[in-house]
Amino acid sequence: MSRPKPSQPDATVLTGAHYLDGDEACAEGAIAAGCRFFAGYPITPSTEIAERIASRFPLVGGTFIQMEDELASMAAILGGAWGGAKAMTVTSGPGFSLMMENIGLGIMTETPCVVVNVQRGGPSTGLPTLTGQQDMMQARWGSHGDYEVIALSPSSPQECFDLTITAFGLSERYRLPVLFMMDECVGHMTEKVVIPPAEDIPVIERRWYRGPKESYLPYQAGPDKVPDMVRAGDDYRIHITGLTHDERGYPVINAACQSVCVSRLVDKIRDNAGDIVITDEEAVDGADVVVVSYGISYRVATRAIALARAEGIKVGSVRLVTVWPFPEARIAELSRKVKALVMPEINLGQMYRELQRAAAGNCRTLLIPHCGGWVHDPNDVLAAIREGAK
Amino acid sequence: MSELLTTPAPGGPVVEEERHPHEPFLRMDRIPHIWCSTCGLGTVLNCYITAIQRSSVPRADHTIVSGIGCTGRAAGYVKIDSFHTTHGRALPFATGLKLANPRLKVTVFSGDGDLVAIGGNHLIHAARRNMDMTVICVNNFNYAMTGGQFGPTTPEGAKLTTAPYGSYEHPFNIPFLVDSCGATYVARWTSLHVREMIETLVEALNHRGFSFVEVISPCPTVYARRNRLGTGLDLLKYYHDSAEVRHGADTRDVDISFKGRIIVGRFVQRCKPTYLDTMDAALGRSVGKEFVCYEGPMQASDGRS
Amino acid sequence: MKYWRRPLDADHCRSPHGIVHIIINRCKGCGFCINYCPKQVLEFSRHFNRKGYHPPVVVKPEACVDCGLCGAICPEFAIWSTPNPECILDEPAEAKPA
Ligand SMILES: Cc1ncc(C[n+]2csc(CCOP(=O)(O)OP(=O)(O)O)c2C)c(N)n1
Ligand code: SF4
Ligand code: SF4
Ligand code: SF4
Ligand SMILES: [Mg+2]
């Protein structure tokens, strides 16, 4: 770990070029984004993030606590956020399962925070040290009830840094737990990471309520459907509950209030999807085949795409930087222009279902599945590209 | 007729348009509360509200966190920052609140099932860390909100919907549990002991470290009915007859059996560095000059910190 | 009231008399206040309140010592006492210099 030199005036943002793994870069991204409260429970392959935070926080004025389990970690970061801190927890599949109920509490109470899942192979204890992308649907639907989420998936240590900052920004902007879906390969891959000067880092601050105290209603939203926030201890006398609630935050147990409450939670993401969704496209215009990928699978796909191009196949790439919300409109548009959409993912077809749904039969959709434990062989992706180009 | 009319009978003073002295601390737009007639929960809430006013903590710093259950509804009635979380997770949520804003006086107000069953792991760890917060654990010996199932505090022999022939599990002695885990203030009263409970709650709120107050309280609707123990008033009479005040009692001796004696009092009061004390001291020592103490919560609009 | 010893200020102080306040329609008729009032000031009313409960009624107003127990034990925030200023002192406070 590159510890700041004592002479360095500000240890917060380690501006410069570093050689970091994805986990370490994620921790640095969190610090640069202003995260100052961390609660977690060790689990491979996410532990290095917690370790990096534990050693860095005392130098930057953050509070780290190792909780007794992931149920506690998730609850603690929600408390931390209401206490007025930017808060984060990190885990992997088994811990992610334990966090689900309180991710739902975070959605319902509109609590900004970031939950990192460095995915490994599952189900159950599965492959603790080996990669997977099998929690993608769990990220979307893992907590009970109806809701929308925002999830991102980095493909490199540099992105683990950059997108952690984006994740914090989205969580503050839209007030919800943002899920940061890394995987073991990206987490443990060591590459050059460039940390920009602090002033060039786009840090988004909390949507503090600025009106008169008497007229504050915790769940009164503006045109963007996101309410402004206050923190505990400022005498607003807020009531915050996981029960269905009205604008005052008071529980109202009936269908009418449920409709207003849940619709807004969903609509604040759906209506703003254009602002939230990030994709990274390359050579899609005029392509016969487009490979749609995310996370570590994108890295494998780039190799397969290069091989296919060498064979003269017109192939483009769409990388899902935000995996949720899914870029439905864009995929639908592409499906009308290409012969095939090809998706490699380290599971037996999760985001692929979304791809199929968005493509709606306009073109062929090909899944390159993988059970986890290792990344795809680029030749398998190449074979699918060839098949799609037929 | 005004809601605020008094005494309908001859001889009584007639006082009009008056407000209960606790009303400024209650969300009056949510009163009456949902609790049953002769339930003890309202009494405990009443005493807590008295105690926060008598404590040395400014009102804005008082924060209440509840889990889920009849008791868990308490957070929804107090006009201070209040959080109604998930079943069992009030303590870790409260831990996050406290660490993010150490100025807060965080009180967890929840039931025996919430704190000792589903949240038991968090309870022992919060006590172990001597996390600076107050816990009010209302023990009605069952999961009341879900209709009266047995739980880890149900005395052996008591009948409940999932123990139709009487519970045969060994119950927790909660004061002993939290004492042995490191709690630095431990007391127990019943909802009949209102003066003592208020005094104790004030002490607990002023205490630095993990303070824990168990309040034995009647659940007439499910627990008492199933066990033919009568109304809440009958249970208060039982508390009156079987409570034994023993300050400083060895917590090993304060277990409660079905219809048995209830030892009450302040059992533990000791000084020990809190979680934040030990954290700051240890990091200050080992990290040295580079150590930057937690900078506090982000500045909100009104600039309070 | 009977004292086990004569209080030092008994010549000019009486035990404080209280006024009992009851919000009858907030009461859920648990009887806690009635049963545990040390002075038996209260009884169940024969009347029903709007919720269908029998609220307490003050039967011995002069006996109330403003101990506050009814106010503390009431689960409904429906009853409380306040000192009756006319009954606290026989003489003005300046009668006894500090
Ligand atoms: C995860 C979860 N499991 C179960 C429940 C159902 N549930 C709600 S309250 C409760 C028991 C509450 O018991 P206690 O904490 O003793 O409170 P009481 O109602 O007795 O005051 C249960 C099991 C729930 N809400 N969440
Ligand atoms: S069910 Fe029991 S604990 Fe719940 S409000 Fe009724 S009497 Fe009280
Ligand atoms: S204040 Fe005391 S004496 Fe007066 S009515 Fe209430 S309980 Fe009885
Ligand atoms: S204690 Fe309160 S609710 Fe119970 S009878 Fe008296 S006034 Fe009514
Ligand atoms: Mg209970």
TrEMBL record, chain A:
Print the keywords alphabetically.
Oxidoreductase
Quick check: keyword Oxidoreductase in the entry? yes
Taking every annotated instance into account, which residue ranges of this chain make up the domain Pyruvate flavodoxin/ferredoxin oxidoreductase pyrimidine binding? 28-255
InterPro entries assigned: 2-oxoacid_oxidoreductase, PFOR_II, Pyrv_Fd/Flavodoxin_OxRdtase_N, THDP-binding, Transketo_C/PFOR_II
Q: Does the keyword Disulfide bond apply?
A: no
Domain Pyruvate:ferredoxin oxidoreductase core: from-to ranges: 287-381
Gene3D superfamilies the record matches: 3.40.50.920, 3.40.50.970
Superkingdom of origin organism: Bacteria
Molecular function terms, GO-annotated: oxidoreductase activity
What is the protein name stated in its UniProt record?
2-oxoacid:acceptor oxidoreductase subunit alpha
Source species? candidate division WOR-3 bacterium
From TrEMBL, chain B:
Q: Name one GO biological process term.
A: cellular respiration
The chain positions of domain Thiamine pyrophosphate enzyme TPP-binding read 72-215
- Stored InterPro entries: 2-oxoacid:Fd_oxidoreductase, THDP-binding, TPP_enzyme_TPP-bd
Q: Name one GO molecular function term.
A: thiamine pyrophosphate binding
Keywords of the record, alphabetical order, are:
Oxidoreductase
The molecule here is called 2-oxoacid:ferredoxin oxidoreductase subunit beta
Species the sequence originates in: candidate division WOR-3 bacterium
From TrEMBL, chain C:
Which InterPro entries did the record assign? Answer: 4Fe4S_Fe-S-bd (IPR017896), 4Fe4S_Fe_S_CS (IPR017900), Fe-S_Ferredoxin (IPR050572)
Entry's Gene Ontology molecular function annotations: 4 iron, 4 sulfur cluster binding; metal ion binding
Alphabetized UniProt keyword annotations: 4Fe-4S, Iron, Iron-sulfur, Metal-binding
Q: Which domain of life is it from?
A: Bacteria
Q: From the UniProt record, list the coiled-coil ranges.
A: none
PROSITE patterns in the record: 4FE4S_FER_1 (PS00198), 4FE4S_FER_2 (PS51379)
Q: Name one Pfam family in it.
A: Fer4_7
Residues in 4Fe-4S ferredoxin-type domain copies? 18-47, 55-84
> Know the name of this protein?
4Fe-4S dicluster domain-containing protein
| Organism the protein comes from | candidate division WOR-3 bacterium
